[in-house]
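REQUEST ID: PR-0412
SUBMITTED BY: lab tech R.K.
PRIORITY: routine
TASK: structure prediction, single protein chain
INPUT:
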Amino acid sequence: REHEGRTLRSITPGEARAYATDHKSAVAALRAMFNDALDDGLVDANPFAKLGIAGSKGREDITVLTLDEITCLQAIARDVHSGEYGDTIAALITWSAYTCVRPGEAFAATFDQLDGDVYHLQAQFNSKLGKETAPKHDSVGSIYVPEPARDAVLRLPRRLGDPLMFRSKRGRQFRQETLHRAWTPIRSAFMATLGSGHHLRQRLAVDPDDRLDYYELRHFGASHML
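STATUS: complete
OUTPUT:
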């Protein structure tokens, strides 16, 4: 918003440094964005490169969600969205939380790749490109599927000749914007159940933009399995 109407090439290193100083959590994303622009010939240099400013530590020190909180999110998903779509969102949350897959990998999940408690990860849905691609970092392979995730997806309805696990309210493949619309009211309802001393409330008190991110379900999964 502060730089609306400006071209990428017009952003100077001085402006980049000033912005990065006030928005450290955005430095990594901006640096990556301008690297892409540099590759595409849209800029002559990356103004966010070599700033000497430490970026955000991201989720390194977060407190992960508990098992009860994951169960609460599942129940809220069914309550907020109701019906078959509510069951789908609850299953998507369960699958993401227990398998540790990235959102795009969940969007591309298919029943024919599920073999008992093993899932053969082959693809992700890349929302930016609007199509399925190889998973990030070429992380194809077999992953363990804990019982709660397996049971959740096996209860979902299936379409003949179409093995896709999760579908939007309109029956389409999920993408980031679809997930955002589904997740935002669930997160709001979930936050309303938490006391003022909860670590998620404390995070918001420090940074109003530090909301519970869907990606944090992966942190639960890793900690739960450990």
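NOTES: The chain has a mean pLDDT of 92.
REVIEWED BY: pending
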